[in-house]
Amino acid sequence: MKEITYSFKEAEKCCFCGAEKQAFKVLGKRMNVPQGYSPNKKIGISTTIIKCKNCGLIFSNPMPIPEKISDHYGIPAEDYWKPEYFIIPEGYSHNLIQWLEKLYPPKENTKILDIGAGIGKLMVAFQRNNYDVYGLEPSEPFYKKAIEKTGISSEKLILTTIEDYEFEPEQFDVIILAAVLEHLYYPNDVIKKLMVGLKPGGLIFIEVPHSKWLISRILNAFYKIKGLDYVTNLSPMHSPFHLFEFSLQSFEQNAKINNYEILDYTYYVCDTFMPKILNPLLIPFMKYTKTGMELAIWLRKPSG
Known about the structure:
By secondary structure, this protein is an alpha/beta fold. It has 9 helices and 13 strands.
């Protein structure tokens, strides 16, 4: 494992809804290595996982913050994704584009920003559908691979973090954070910043880990039955470095702070990571109970 130096910052308030620490509930411990079924037999360090009872946000407290963010993400793109990921098929992200067009009918020069663009696959998909697309990518290896593999202009894809990017007021019609917000240390500050760069009536699409994912709850119950003070939520100190899990309630409470409307949302079941024999039971149950792995949600800035 690569050596990473962390500082640890204790939260006094929920960083998404602002609730005081009296609203924090301790869920258990999370190690800096994949835990498996017997985390008590693993060697490593752990941090405490908290749930905010006001908004349902799940996070690490104290929060481990690496000395350099590049320690987490400054790795070759080939090491992060499998070779087939670099292929961008026709119709890629078709469902997302259709969903957008249902909520925000296409117009001339609709301007989109993809934050955490990776190798640019989503940018290419929207360009194929005649959108004016820009992207931000903080990882230099990913940025270079996007320019090399997709032919995206360096004027369209910018090597920077969202924290360092300076928006012009009302710059974009649509802003996308697909599998991004859970990696950012101050998610409320980011949303507040996005609202500055979003046009009135504009949309933000966010795709994040769901704090009510059924499989996490099953594994947490398994740990509890074994008498272990561990949970499977998050991975703040190992790949994929998830810092937060969100629920619909999280965004309902955050909307009160940032004055936006929740326009639409859904839940993605994704992989169950359980024995395949259980999938015929687990998948329909997660769909019915809305306990899939990911929450996908659209936020709308007021028009006035």
